[in-house]
Design brief:
- This protein has 142 residues and is of the alpha+beta class.
- The chain has a single domain, classed as HIT-like (HIT family, subunit A), CATH 3.30.428.10.
- Helices cover 30% and strands 18% of the residues.
- The chain contains three helices and five strands; from the N terminus they run αβββαββα.
- Strands 1-2-3-5-4 form a five-stranded antiparallel β-sheet.
- A hairpin with a 3-residue loop joins β1 and β2.
- The longest helix has 21 residues.
């Protein structure tokens, strides 16, 4: 496996070197909005500890991330009144991973509505913020 690159975009966000629309944070994880969302409310769960993907994570970091993924999924279902949730984790380039810092995608889903294809189009900041605000509010309902 290739070594972890400390200059990947998520490492830069975690260091505060790049901005993000943060939704939730605890000692071990950070939740941000995807700026190239496949659906409204597309959120990303990142461990704060460096790792490329699930294959090289410490078990304690994995447990923290899965607990946060569950919190985000519950909040997302409420915030967006979703019919379901898709959770994705890609491993290495051949598995679809594009940013080599461990992360999970949490996507609210609706019956009969397909996911938009992955894109390089950045959503308008106002739309990303509005979706972040909805998701943040749903976290406070727990």
């Amino acid at each position: 496996m290739t070594d972890y690159d400390p200059d990947n975009i998520f490492a830069k966000i975690l260091r505060g070197d790049m901005p993000s629309e943060t939704v939730y944070e605890d000692d071990n994880t950070l939740v941000i909005m995807d700026i190239m969302p496949r659906v409204d409310g597309h959120a990303l769960v990142l461990p704060k500890a460096p790792s490329r993907n699930i294959l090289d994570m410490a078990p304690a970091d994995l447990a923290s991330c899965v607990a946060t993924v569950q919190k985000v999924a519950r909040a997302s279902k409420r915030a967006f009144e979703a019919d379901g949730i898709t959770i994705q984790h890609f491993v290495e380039g051949a598995g679809g991973q594009m940013v080599f810092h461990t992360h999970w995608h949490v996507l609210p889903r609706f019956e009969g509505t397909p996911l938009a294809p992955h894109s390089t189009d950045i959503a308008p900041a106002e739309k990303v913020k509005a979706n972040a605000d909805k998701l943040r509010a749903a976290f406070n309902e727990d």
